[in-house]
Amino acid sequence: THSFITLGEAMAMFVAKTPGQLANIEEFHRSLAGAEVNVAIGMARLGFEASYISKVGKDSFGQFIRKAISKENIRTAWISESTNHATGFMLKSNVTDGSDPKVEYFRKNSAASTLSATDIDENLFKTGTHLHLTGISIAVSSTMREATKHALNLAKEQGCSVSFDTNLRPTLWPDEATMIANINEFAFASDIVLPGIEEGKILAGSDQPEVIADFYLQHGVKTVIVKLGSKGAFFKTNTGESGTVAGFPVEKVVDTVGAGDSFAVGVISALLDGKAMEQAARRGNLLGSLTVQVRGDSEGLPTRAHLSTLEKAV
Ligand code: KDG
Fold first, then answer.
1. What CATH number is attached to the domain comprising 69?
2. Which of 82, 112, 132, 294 could bridge to 300 as Cys pair (CB 3.0-4.6 Å)?
């Protein structure tokens, strides 16, 4: 069996029940957030053995995260507990029309931000097949960045493939230049890079999907898939294979947050299933289209049976 590994910060997310400014909202719906944990959930639902490396606080949010993760059959052995740092959480405004919701973080000095290279168990990588990383973990803190670097090196040493979702979060970085330098350093060291088109503009300085892809391919990346939102995705590999796959028509876009994570689940799972790059990009789009139709980050992610039904229908 293929085993999937990821590392990051999970948070309790409070989504406003009604539209309006966060300061005025009285009622929120609590769910789970964290780009990497979303991907782990998606992989586990598709039947892959999924391990999640993280840290939570000794508090109710930490308990909530652990429970939510074990309910999804994700291995929790590498989730440690901090005694003196609290679990991070975030607020998200209510959108129902696909516009960008307002996000407010309460994660500075969080338990997860204290994760460090010493928390990474080398043995995990001996049996791992694929490691997924994102630009959020490396923005959270310098120790988290070192932990991510260590995981990346261990994965490469053990022959695990590595995917990297650039996932830009400008508010977590001191300035744009630092963000670009760090994100590209990790991207260049990965096998598969998954930038959104808007992120590609910032990171590679072009709004042309192929130029963005070439930028990463020239730095040693094997495959780049540029996400084009409703327009689908452009992929290019270092063997010269390239193409554009169309987006899936969606009846109503509710909230686009989490779509990129679902896209990653589609791509990684398809590649581990032995599918060709075009099919992988297609499955990425399919899963992204499921997530934009729901409010939460992970509730749209399908089980293996559901995915088979959906793929037969297209
Ligand atoms: O990709 C979805 C994430 O944005 C969300 O779950 C929260 O991880 C998160 C973040 O740091 O923005």
1. 3.40.1190.20
2. 294
Q: Is the CB of 257 under 6 A from ligand 1?
A: yes
User: Which residues are bridge partners to 196 per DSSP?
Assistant: 227
Question: Which whole number is the average pLDDT over 85-105?
Answer: 92
Cβ–ligand 1 contact at 34 (below 6 Å)? yes
Decide if 314 is inside a domain: no
β-bridge mates for residue 79, sequence order? 54
Q: Which of 119, 165, 261, 297 is catalytic?
A: 261
- The reported pTM is 0.97
Evaluate whether 92 touches 13 at the Cβ level (below 8 Å): yes
- Rounded distance between C-alpha atoms, residue 123 and residue 232, angstroms: 38
Is there a catalytic annotation at residue 214? no
Residue 52 has φ and ψ, to the nearest 5°, of -125, 120
If one counts the domains in the chain, the total is 1
d(CA 46, CA 266): 10
Nearest CA to ligand 1 atom 10: 34
Q: Which 3 state secondary structure label does DSSP give 28? A: strand
Tokens of 225: 């898939």
Q: In terms of residue numbers, what domain contains 295? A: 3-301
What is the rounded average pLDDT of the residues 13-27? 96
- ipTM of predicted assembly, 2 dp: 0.92
Task: Out of 167, 183, 294, give the residue to mutate to test ligand 1, the one with the largest number of ligand atoms within 8 Å of its CB.
Answer: 167
Ligand 1 pocket, residue 40 CB under 6 Å: no
The pair of structure tokens assigned to 106 is: 């309460």
Of 55-69, 187-201, 242-256, give the lowest mean pLDDT range: 242-256
Please tell me the predicted confidence (pLDDT) of residue 128: 87
